[in-house]
Amino acid sequence: MSVNRSVDHCKTPSDITYQVLSWVMVGEFTLGLPLNLSVLYIFIFRYKFWKNKAIFLFNIVVADFLLVGCLPFKIHHYQHNLRRSEDTVLCKIMLFMLFLNRGASIAFLITMSLDRYFNVVHLGRRNFVKVFKKSPQISVIIWILLLPLTIPTMVTTFECCNSHGRVKETYLHDVTDTFREIVFFSQIIIPYIILVYCTVRIVNRLRKKTVGEKTKLRRAVCLVTSVVVVFSFCFLPCTIARAALLFVRLKNWQDAENIAVQWYDALMVLSYSDCLLDPLIYCFSNSGFKDVYISTFSGGRSADNLNSSDDI
């Protein structure tokens, strides 16, 4: 398929739509920056995450900061009627950061959910995830393993950071673009299936437990349910929109693509709200963190005297 030179795919198909989306991101950035700064402060200076087995939670905070740091650039581009930066290097760096944020957030959220699953459904058996939580090196390894899945965004030059289905591709170009799309879809669909499975098993386990054990188990249900809700709200809609966009692009339906692009970009902006929703997961997953956070900013009991715990 040859490139349609009459269409500038880097320009926004509707200026009004992208002006609105830019202001939505302004709101996400305005709320997300102080929220995540406060969470980071608590984790480092009050909660001391390395002592309370909350290393995975801390890594989610770091991943959220990668996203928050990208939002001002996205806002600038949308307000100047550009879907992506016209600078090729900046364009690729932005996609790299967004892919890395998404992959890291999902990886650590899945790890937390699996930990709750083994603690509840397979209580008494060796929990390999719990062993990982005690080793900071495991978090470093997870970040390193994410790099091969993120590098394809920077391997080759592609029009507006996405040429799949738009240009006549070389073998390397085709493999790179295809691999990038596989990563995009698999990192959402596969974890979502795992989350749903863990949620169903934990809920079934809860029904069989005695009354005295149900308090902690309900926390586990709240955690995995909240993660599923975040996935369903933030990631699934843009994944479906991505599939629709690729379909109309491969069919070379330009008018339909203009509409699909707007829906996809709008739902991607919606997905950025995970930096606002993730702190809710921190509270569900660890009551110790919640107590420290509330006591610090409400002037209650001394956070240093609170009993931090790693809940089921």
Automatic annotation (TrEMBL):
It comes from the Eukaryota. InterPro entries: GPCR_Rhodpsn (IPR000276), GPCR_Rhodpsn_7TM (IPR017452), HCARs (IPR051893). SUPFAM superfamilies: Family A G protein-coupled receptor-like. It is a multi-pass membrane protein. GO terms for molecular function: G protein-coupled receptor activity. Its main location: membrane. PANTHER family: 12-(S)-HYDROXY-5,8,10,14-EICOSATETRAENOIC ACID RECEPTOR, HYDROXYCARBOXYLIC ACID RECEPTOR 2. This is G-protein coupled receptors family 1 profile domain-containing protein. The chain crosses the membrane at residues 20-44, 56-75, 95-118, 138-158, 178-200, 221-248. It is found in: Membrane. The gene is LOC100704295. It holds the Pfam family 7tm_1. Residues 35-282 form the G-protein coupled receptors family 1 profile domain. Keywords: G-protein coupled receptor, Membrane, Receptor, Transducer, Transmembrane, Transmembrane helix. GO terms for cellular component: membrane. Belongs to the G-protein coupled receptor 1 family.
